[in-house]
Amino acid sequence: ELGDFPHYMLKEIYEQPEALENAMRGRLDVGDATAHFGGLNLSAQQLRQIDRVIFTACGTSYHAGMVGEYLFEELARVPAEVEYASEFRYRNPPIDRNTLIFAITQSGETADTLAALRESKRMGHTTLAICNVVGSSIAREADGGVYLHAGPEVGVASTKAFTTQCAVLAMLALYLGRSRHLSAAQGEKIIADLQALPDVLRETLRCHDRVKAIAAKYADARNVLYLGRQYLYPGALEGALKLKEISYIHAEGYPAAEMKHGPIALVDEQTPSVFLVPRGAVFDKVMSNMQEIKARGGPVIAVASHGDREVAAVADDVIPVPDVPEYLQPIVTAIPLQLLAYEIALLCGCDVDKPRNLAKSVTVE
Ligand code: F6R
């Protein structure tokens, strides 16, 4: 089943272009410039009345939910928030009946996410699932939902589930947006961006050799920081999670500008920072955050737009990625971060597919 790959994690990283094709197949409607989903079970009226969305999830799926907040806000203009399922299940937040709740989960069996879904249904809210495993508990108990169609994810570290979750959330935001203010022309542009994405990821995967060389330079780090802003703030959290769970190196993700409020005290010559800095609206801001780290002697690895000389002049090492609109950058930049964690974990002699203390699905509270 592994084919030519030494580990499931690597196989699943390389499967992402195809996983995205499968996640989007039959769902993009060029004619109406929108997306369609078979199993949402929402009437047109319900859809129009939605005025708030809550995502609930754990771990990597929670990070996808954070990307979802930005997507729903920007593309659909619907207020959205995400909450850890383990917190949501014990809270009693005021939620009105036009709020839609989504449980995001690869396995569909995560105990806290399942409990959050049940609690939400008990209160009478429409609760949908964004899920990979067909027929899983969460898929069965939700009022409706969207399957990722990413194929089986065997490696404990989630990879293709994250990128397909982000793509499904973008399609849902498009769908909600088109039932509101988004014009047909804007919808068409989003569809074209999404359709181009599988090939963009094929191109992105070519960074592997570069990432391998960089991993060799930093594999003995004890602490690594991951920094990004806006859509790439959750991207930074996800990069840090990948590294810590499979290499056991301490890593933290932060919104880049938040560093100066405390965490910058951690920076020294032995503490590399991974900056997510492809071109976009906050590029200059992230560059000045990068300068702040350099000024304190911290080594910088930058994930940047192909051929970006401004970044190359400051960063110690650069991983080039193709340019995409900002709302798709978390998907594209996930690839070098997954590869970096994988290569460093291998150099540390870790079992990347079965990291210590972890199970593929967490079915206990
Ligand atoms: C990280 C990872 C975990 C899961 C989390 C939720 O790589 O795999 O953080 O993302 O346990 O699992 P699901 O998505 O199955 O609910």
UniProtKB/TrEMBL annotation:
> What Gene Ontology cellular-component terms does the record carry?
cytosol
For this protein's source organism, the top of the classification is: Bacteria, Pseudomonadati, Planctomycetota, Planctomycetia, Gemmatales
Q: What is this protein called?
A: Glutamine--fructose-6-phosphate aminotransferase [isomerizing]
- Keyword presence, Cytoplasm: yes
- Enzymatic class: transferase
Tell me how this protein assembles.
Homodimer.
Keywords (A to Z) from UniProt: Aminotransferase, Cytoplasm, Glutamine amidotransferase, Repeat, Transferase
GO MF assignments: carbohydrate derivative binding; glutamine-fructose-6-phosphate transaminase (isomerizing) activity
Endoplasmic reticulum in keyword set: no
Q: Briefly state the protein's biological role.
A: Catalyzes the first step in hexosamine metabolism, converting fructose-6P into glucosamine-6P using glutamine as a nitrogen source.
Catalytic activity, per the record? Answer: D-fructose 6-phosphate + L-glutamine = D-glucosamine 6-phosphate + L-glutamate
Q: Where is the active site?
A: K360
Any one Gene Ontology BP term: protein N-linked glycosylation
EC annotation from Swiss-Prot or TrEMBL: 2.6.1.16
Q: Where is the SIS domain?
A: 43-182, 214-355
